[in-house]
């Protein structure tokens, strides 16, 4: 089984849990928009990464399910808001009309609000049933911080404020590590915390997650610069049009690919002590490295 098949299987397994959190709200258009965003075709990479990080350190994947569900809701909300005309102004996501195209601008804003709050409802609601409440709350805090003004929201703000005239290595790393990388890092870190493996394991997976999170966005930058809309499943070339600060802008296309190769080596080295239990994590980094050359949407 290759990496994508493995990810698809793990994502399908996770979706059986996610289905239990399907939204029902009044007016119905609100829950319709929320479910449209949450259940649109996706690889469920972030929750799967959390579950596999936990398992790689000997933990029980099921202990992470409510946190993994929360992360997927946070991610879905972020896509809905990022796609809005006042943000990245996209009308296609995963080959489908974006939420504001399908349901209107106001309903998309409210759907994003509902998804973010739904995430915290799902995660907080499971606290009292958790086996290790201290670990659960620590993992919850990792996700919350990565989702807010010290992580994803800060990165989006910097991305909106930045233009090509202010491009630098420092600027692009901050934007990417915050906007995309922070939540991915939190998934690996939260999984490690929930495994109960101790500080060394948590530090290892947090380092790995931070590297892979940065790889993800660099690969996405390269694809935006080189792929067609049909290949990427979304509008491409928009970063250059909007003068966004990206790795291809700062380093050139060849330089961005070299950055990706270097980070892949770091990610693989970071988890080498895991041995075979870390195979999925290793394959994740290798897949991201290859996705830019294959012109495939990053996981």
Verbal overview:
With 299 residues, this protein is mainly α. The chain has 14 helices and 2 strands. It has helices at residues 3-18, 28-38, 45-56, 65-82, 99-103, 105-125, 133-147, 152-161, 169-195, 199-226, 229-232, 238-241, 247-270, 279-294, and strands at residues 92-93, 96-97. Strands 1-2 form a two-stranded antiparallel ribbon. The relative contact order is 0.12.
Short description:
By secondary structure, this protein is an all-alpha fold. Helices cover 71% and strands 1% of the residues. The chain has helices at 3-18, 28-38, 45-56, 65-82, 99-103, 105-125, 133-147, 152-161, 169-195, 199-226, 229-232, 238-241, 247-270, 279-294, and strands spanning 92-93, 96-97.
Instruction: Write down the secondary-structure element order.
Output: HHHHEEHHHHHHHHHH
Strand portion: under 5%
Q: Rg to the nearest angstrom?
A: 18 Å
CA-CA gap between termini: 17 Å
Structural shape: globular
- Report strand order across the widest sheet: 1-2
Low-confidence stretches: none
Count of discrete alpha- or pi-helical segments spanning 4 or more residues: 14
- How many strands in all? 2
Q: How confident is the prediction overall: mean pLDDT?
A: 92
| Overall SS class | mainly alpha
Q: What is the multimeric organization of the chains shown?
A: single chain
Fraction of residues in helix = over 70%
Sheet with the most strands?
Answer: 2 strands, antiparallel
